[in-house]
User: What shape does this take?
Amino acid sequence: AQSVTQPDIHITVSEGASLELRCNYSYGATPYLFWYVQSPGQGLQLLLKYFSGDTLVQGIKGFEAEFKRSQSSFNLRKPSVHWSDAAEYFCAVGDFQGGSEKLVFGKGTKLTVNP
Amino acid sequence: DAMVIQNPRYQVTQFGKPVTLSCSQTLNHNVMYWYQQKSSQAPKLLFHYYDKDFNNEADTPDNFQSRRPNTSFCFLDIRSPGLGDAAMYLCATSRDSRGLYGNQPQHFGDGTRLSIL
Assistant: This one.
């Protein structure tokens, strides 16, 4: 069965520092991968997605992610974190079944940004 | 402009008293999903509609039901809420993935936080 692992439950960085959030997946075929961000009390917002092609994917808010098939990873990065980036981040793999994809989420990584 | 709208944002109900959460969308998407998210956990898919076809997850309790009267609206009914049902409930939509290359991303509403007294 497909699964997603986010090894870091909580990460704290200083504003302006670089950020990398880790994500590993288990999926038998070509994965469809997503990163979502959730601010407190809000729904999930799509940051970026990978379907195929260029393994370095650019997203919104200055985020990018790199797909590495050999490592089964899809890590999220940002060169300089802003205080407004404090939120919970979810990595997900899409499981295509019968015309509608189901998302399998990791448990999330909570990001705290220190001033 | 909000494209997936959930009402209300906060809902309080009594133990055992039926409650209905609503979701509407302006995206004209074929697929609508309901997720349950408990504190500090990942969203868990309860069920989804592909057009009018209802798809229940195997581990979704019978206490949870859903209705989709038209493309724009979808409802989550909890027949007899228990304390363990207190959670954030998220609605999401996506386009039809059949015949298209790649999964279509899901668009989420802001959720309804349900509290049980």
The mean pLDDT of chain A is 91.
